[in-house]
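Sample intake sheet
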Amino acid sequence: KSDLIYSYTLEESTTKIKDFTLQRSRWLKGFLITFLINILDFKNSVKLGFLNFIQIIFSLGMAFFGFFCIPFLILFSFFTNHDSFLNSLYIINLFCSLIYLSVFCLISAKESFGSYNNIYPLLPFYFLLHVLSSFVAFWDFFKNPFYWRKTKHSN
């Protein structure tokens, strides 16, 4: 049996974009591995129940695949009919990914800065870093699945 302890975890942020991208790729790789373990184990998936199964798909699967699929969906949307299912999928994926990032950014900004105003201009850049990190995570997953990158903090 387990219980939940309400607490804040204070962590020092990375100071360089490369370190942030590598840290985020480590997290996304962890989401991917956890997602695949839970989804591919059919007996466990049945035991989880429908709502928990859907929660795993959205919390772990979307965290990785939402960002990883965006470049492909953008590329394919140029070559398909704009009324196609693929184009609709791209719009839905982009919208869900932006909401996912925005919620976490805004909660973090409110906790750190007390205001949301200074974080809005950075959201597109933050979004692109997540897309890049998803590709690094995908590469690491196949190249070296048991290696976990260390994060450099401070100078």
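Comment: Helices lie at 17-40, 42-48, 50-68, 70-79, 85-113, 123-143. The chain has a mean pLDDT of 79.
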